[in-house]
Specification:
The structure holds two protein chains of two kinds.
Chain A: H1 10-19, H2 52-63, E1 68-70, H3 82-101, E2 107-112, H4 118-128, E3 134-142, H5 153-161, E4 166-172, H6 187-192, H7 194-208, H8 210-213, E5 219-222, H9 229-243, H10 254-261, E6 262-265, H11 275-285, E7 291-292, H12 314-336
Parallel strand pairs in A: 1-2, 2-3, 3-4, 4-5, 5-6, 6-7
Helix pairs in contact in A: 4-5
Chain B: E1 23-27, H1 33-36, H2 42-50, H3 89-100, E2 104-107, H4 120-139, E3 145-150, H5 156-166, E4 172-178, H6 191-200, E5 204-207, H7 225-230, H8 232-245, H9 248-251, E6 257-260, H10 267-281, H11 292-299, E7 300-303, H12 313-323, E8 328-329, H13 352-367
Parallel strand pairs in B: 1-2, 2-3, 3-4, 4-5, 5-6, 6-7, 7-8
Helix pairs in contact in B: 5-6, 10-11
Classes of the chains: A alpha/beta, B alpha/beta.
């Protein structure tokens, strides 16, 4: 909260002081939980990845990255007051630009948007669209209503116009319990439930026709897990064959739509330690263009430098590490922002 | 998926050599409230007339998502003599049991069964009536048909009472719950139900559907029926997660759970994800002493319908192998629209032994059918 204060308008800076707003931190990532930061990425306190210097040492120097995209997770999506949500979201994006992007030229970032109000969300995309360092529009996997719903479409039109993929990151605005059966007991269940949120969002975006209306839009599922995808597509494509008269604007299989429009980040992959099974799963995915390299830094998804699950075919590595992210984030952005 | 079987093909006859034994673990008999009347007290009958059922959604009759065929049934399943699909034993015998040579069928009565009603008293009364009806109208009239103990699951005490009432009656082969409940089924409020089931030697069958009172996804209400049916898999994932992480199977080591009409392709990936999270955060769930996938492998069974179909059929076989061929039970879902025909629905690439396990052997074991 201290960090955002310089970027807040006076009214909200006063409100923070007078109302005693101490933090917008979300229970999606308890700072001390093992998944929230790998032990060797933590500093003296619970927080990790707090300075550009740490990032340079732990990511860029160690793995020789050319570019890295930061997706800032701070609970601005949980805020119920639309004006407050806008103020904090804008401040967050300003903070990302000034404190991170300005200090490390290999960094890119996502535009966080306040879905609480669609007009505000579109304004925020327009505010950053000129800045080529912002390469994606970021929302959470669980919100108030499913992402395919039509009142959100101006957001997708703006994203498509500027060549920005829609990034859906694990996390919840906690408008609903994290399961369709109410609130679970344990944090481990909350984290496990993220994949169900992603499944529902993919179903919603496809069924409502977002990708039919916006053929240029790409959707990146971030920290979604990967191995649930094939069986989900079997199920949805089968039901589409039986029920397509309900959504006649969807004139091809959800599996095809998925492969054309959706991308997934590599970590967490969620497979067992079996080269054979990993190879089969890659075959099940049915496309070499789906996976984008991610470390999920500083979250603890893998140990040491083993960010590629054992069993990934060698000829897929370059696609995952370079070609697919390039095609998703940079090529379209360049063609949509001529001269910048 | 078949809405209407225009040309029922290759139905096997009872005389065929190498006849494949078939146990169908998901048949839906239809009982009406009128059928329940002899088993309801005046109080609950009058209550129904005055206030009606109160599901955890807003519709007096019907559902939040209208089905794509009337009451989600095959268009050819309406009995010629009248009544709704699944309401006429003679027609069910002719169209399904005799036609395919089904050896045993497990009855899973859905609405009206009172499950999940806001009024716990009504829920218990309707569950009792649903069980009496299963005996009188179905199981006692055709010994191939086995009943499920419908329980008013939101009231554990009443559920236990209903299970104990049926314990020892081999016409009942499982305790029936639905997948969308007010709390996830691993929560302690439901444990008395599992204890009573284990005491009675019955597995728990969890059939897709029900209304939890929560949004149908963790990101709010979807718009379409196709999303509702796709989402059964996400609710089922939450059920399995909850049962494992609450430590249910440490407490009830003999408990068997059959996931019915929930699909199965999602199960291996869920197990892998839970294993990984458990390794990192087992200090939060110290009562879970083994990797989650081990509990899943030991305690869960899945039914086939709606059969998973991939562009490459070998992918579905992978999923079946990862789950275990000894954990998969054939189901038709008769008389619903997405009925799976036993002749064509199961992948032909299975070995003879795998077919026999899936069509009958596994069900015989878990339901103790003799």
């Amino acid at each position: 909260m201290r960090a955002l204060m310089p970027y807040l308008p006076d009214f909200w800076r006063d409100s923070v002081e007078e109302r005693g707003i101490t933090s917008l931190g979300s229970i999606s990532y308890p700072p001390n939980a093992p998944i929230s930061a790998r032990p060797d990425f933590r500093g003296a306190g619970p927080e990790a990845a707090t300075t550009v210097g740490e990032l340079q040492a732990q990511i860029f120097d160690r793995w020789g990255m050319s570019f890295a995209i930061c997706n800032c997770l701070y609970g601005v999506q949980l805020v119920l007051n639309e004006d407050m949500a806008r103020a904090f979201t804008c401040a967050l994006n300003d903070w990302i630009a000034r404190e991170w992007l300005d200090r490390e030229e290999r960094l890119r970032a996502s535009i966080i948007v306040p879905l609480q109000n669609v007009e505000f969300a579109v304004d925020e995309i327009e505010r950053w669209a000129k800045d080529p360092r912002f390469v994606q529009v970021l929302v959470l996997a669980m919100g108030e209503v499913p992402l395919g719903r039509r009142h959100f479409w101006p957001i997708y039109a703006a994203a498509e116009r500027h060549g920005l993929p829609l990034g859906i990151h694990a996390g919840s605005a906690y408008r609903h319990p994290v399961t369709s059966l109410g609130w679970p007991t344990y944090y481990v269940e909350d984290y496990a439930a993220q994949t169900q949120g992603f499944q529902s969002q993919v179903a919603s975006l496809i069924c409502e026709g977002v990708l039919t209306k916006h053929p240029g839009l790409k959707v990146v599922l971030i920290e979604s897990g990967v191995t649930w995808v094939p069986a989900f597509l079997w199920r949805m494509s089968k039901f589409w064959r039986g029920l397509r008269t309900e959504i006649p604007w969807i004139d091809r299989s959800p599996s095809e739509i998925f492969r054309d429009h959706f991308r997934l980040t590599l970590q967490p992959f969620d497979a067992p330690d079996s080269r054979d099974i990993v190879r089969r799963l890659i075959d099940h995915l049915g496309s070499d263009e789906l996976l984008l390299f991610s470390s999920d830094y500083p979250h603890w998804q893998f140990d040491g430098d083993s960010f590629l699950p054992a069993g990934i075919p060698v000829d897929l590595v370059r696609k995952i590490m370079v070609d697919n992210p390039h095609a998703t984030y940079f090529e379209r952005r360049r063609t949509c922002s001529p001269g910048r | 998926m078949n809405i209407e079987l225009r040309q029922p093909v290759r139905a096997q006859t009872a005389q065929s050599k190498n006849r494949l034994e078939i146990v169908d673990v998901d048949i839906h008999p239809k009982n009406t409230l009128e059928d329940f009347r002899p088993y309801l007290s005046n109080r609950w009958w009058d209550y129904l007339q005055t206030y009606g059922r109160r599901s955890r959604h807003g519709f007096v009759d019907g559902y939040p998502f209208p089905k794509m065929t009337p009451i989600a049934c095959r268009r050819d399943a309406w009995p010629p003599g009248g009544g709704g699909p699944g309401s006429d034993l003679g027609f069910m015998q002719e169209q399904h049991l005799d036609h395919y040579g089904i050896d045993f069928g497990v009855l899973n009565p859905l609405a009206p069964s009172g499950q999940g009603d806001q009024n716990a008293g009504l829920s218990a009364a309707l569950a009792f009536a649903a069980n009496e009806c299963q005996l009188e109208r179905w199981a006692l009239r055709d010994k191939r048909l086995k009943a499920s103990v419908v329980v008013p699951y939101e009231d554990a005490e009443a559920s236990v009472q209903e299970i104990r009432r049926r314990a020892g009656d081999r016409n009942f082969v499982q305790v029936l719950m639905l997948s969308r409940t007010a709390e996830a089924l691993g929560r302690k409020r439901y444990w008395p139900v599992y204890e009573a089931a284990v005491e009675a030697g019955l597995p728990i069958g969890i059939h897709a559907f029900g209304y939890s009172g929560w949004a149908m996804t963790n990101g709010g209400w979807p718009s379409f029926y196709i999303e509702e049916v796709t989402e059964h898999a996400t609710s089922a994932q939450a059920v399995v997660t909850s049962m494992v992480m609450e430590g249910l199977f440490e407490r009830y080591r003999d408990l068997k759970v059959v996931m019915i009409e929930c699909g199965f392709g999602w199960l291996p990936a869920l197990g892998w994800r839970l294993d990984k999270l458990w390794r990192k955060m087992r200090d939060e769930v110290p009562h879970v002493t083994r990797p989650p996938s081990e509990y899943i492998r030991e305690h869960f069974y899945v039914s086939t319908q709606p059969m998973e179909e991939a562009e490459d059929p070998s992918h579905v076989l992978d999923a079946m192998r990862w789950i275990g061929f000894d954990r998969i039970l054939f189901a038709s879902d008769y008389p619903h629209w997405d009925f799976d025909d036993p002749v064509v629905a199961i992948p032909p690439a299975l070995t003879e032994e795998q077919r026999r396990m899936i069509f009958a052997g596994n069900a015989r074991t878990v339901y103790r059918l003799d």
